[in-house]
Structures are given as C-alpha cells and as structure tokens.
Design goal:
single chain, 275 residues, mainly beta, 9-stranded antiparallel sheet
Length: 275
C-alpha cells in the first residue's frame, strides 16, 4: 500500500514539475520592454510623434498664443491667408539680426524637455509671392526659421536653424549656437534647399540637449511619410551649445544682416508641437 502511494505521489510530482528547461526561460517583463522603447524615443527620425498639436495659421490676423520678444524689431508679423508671414522691409542698424548679442524678433512657445517642434515649409519669399524665393545677388543674408532660446529672453543664449541665402551660399540652411553673446555659425551647403524653404524639426532630448533635422518641404505631411535628415549628418549645431534648463522658448524668427535682399518675407505653412 505504501509502495503504491509512493508511486502515485512520484507520478504527480513529475506531472507538476517535470517540465523542460525551455519552459523556465525568463521572459522580459512589461517594465523592461517599456524601458527599451523609452530609451529609443526620438532617435529614429522617421518616428515622428503622433500626438502633435498643429497650428496651421488659419485665416488672417495676429499670431495666436505666442510669446513675442522684441516685437518692434519686426512689426509686420502675423497670419496671412493661412500662413505665418513676416514682412522685412527695414533693417536699419541690423535691428532684425540674430547674431552674437543682437536679438531680433522671436514668436515662441514655452516648452519643456523632452519635446518636438516642427516648422513646415519655412523659408523666404518675395513680397508678391511668399512661395517664390528672392533671386540671390551680390552677398546677402536673409533667413527665416526656428530658434530655441533659454527661458530668460534677456539672456544672449540661444540656438537656431534658418533657411535662406547666406552670403554667397544661396538656398541653404544655417545653424547657429549663441552662448553669452558669442555665436558659432555654419551651413549645409549651397542649393541644398533649392526652393528657399524646408521643413525643420527640433527634438528636445531628455538630457536637455537638442537634435536638429531637416528635409525639403513635405507639403502632404498629413498623409505622406517624412524623410528627415540630420543637420550636417550629426544633428548638432556648430560650436558650444547653450546650457538649456528644463524650459525653453521655441519659435519662429525672420531676419537679415545688412540691407541687400530687402524687402523679403519669412513664411511658414504650419507648426507642429509635442511637449
């Protein structure tokens, strides 16, 4: 009887515990999986955030819910027929300039890291047609693009990415870091944006740095896939980057250096924000 009981017990133990070593192989927990996804956030330029809030600049009038710095430097800024439009007709004393300790006009949103900010079809145009870039001649510096500014707007610490003509390098994108009023500048080469406009994507990373992307304008961005390229193959702007804190202002600028190429307009179809 005892032998029979022992055999039954031994059989039951085999059923319960007699599994292969494969069955006890550890699986990644949900927590581990989510950490892997989080670590990779914003590293793939094709993984554009699906939760964007889009400002399409509908209608005509003032910009809506933007913080404005140095409005008097460039007074003619607003929404015109569903686009951001900045008319630059006067640059006496380089009043519009963003370089070293000069700060022209900025129309911005206060954002917290991490974030994404995309400006669609941003660049330069003529007074008669914002979608036709001014004809380059002589040496001219005329731009429109995106600036990232430390939270104190009185501080001379910012970064920007702008589209336009840079001296005798026409139809290009310029990148600039300004730290304590000292600017470092470069560009991506002539004729890289042959229409004088581009899409600019700024990714604010968890560590309070930024990564910069660009592409020729995707005019059907609501349905068509973006093809982002890193700025100068690294996503980094030249020189030393500002020490950004947890909050920054990110927004649109239009400016010139000197008077060649004036008048012109800065233009943008839409801004997309994920904060």
């Amino acid at each position: 009887m005892k032998k029979k009981f022992f055999l039954i017990a031994l059989f039951l133990l085999f059923i319960i515990f007699g599994c292969s070593t494969d069955s006890v192989e550890p699986f990644a927990s949900d927590e581990e999986s989510s950490e892997e996804v989080e670590e990779g956030t914003n590293t793939n330029p094709d993984d554009t955030n699906d939760s964007f809030i889009t400002d399409s600049f509908d209608g005509t009038g003032d910009l809506v819910d933007y913080v404005v710095n140095n409005a008097s430097a460039l007074p003619q800024v607003g929404r015109v027929d569903g686009r951001y439009r900045a008319e630059l007709t006067d640059n006496v004393n380089d009043v519009t300039l963003h370089f070293n300790a000069e700060q022209g006009r900025l129309d911005a949103k206060l954002m917290s890291f991490p974030f994404e900010f995309i400006a669609r079809n941003i660049g330069i145009g003529t007074l008669n047609d914002s979608q036709i870039a001014p004809t380059p001649m002589n040496s001219l510096y005329v731009f429109s693009g995106v600036q990232i500014h430390v939270e104190s707007l009185d501080s001379f610490n910012s970064a920007h990415v702008v589209v336009g003509h840079r001296g005798n390098t026409y139809f290009t994108i310029e990148g600039k870091n300004t730290v304590d009023g000292n600017s470092s500048v470069n560009d991506i080469g002539a004729n890289t944006v042959p229409e004088g406009r581009a899409d600019i994507r700024i990714v604010g990373n968890q560590d309070q740095t930024i990564t910069v992307y660009w592409q020729t304008p995707n005019l059907n961005y609501e349905t068509a896939t973006d093809n982002w390229q890193l700025y100068n193959e690294t996503g980094n702007l030249p020189g030393t980057a500002p020490a950004f804190a947890s909050n920054v202002y990110v927004g649109l600028i239009t400016y010139a250096f000197g008077t060649n190429g004036i008048p012109f307009v800065g233009t943008c179809d839409a801004v997309q924000i994920a904060d």
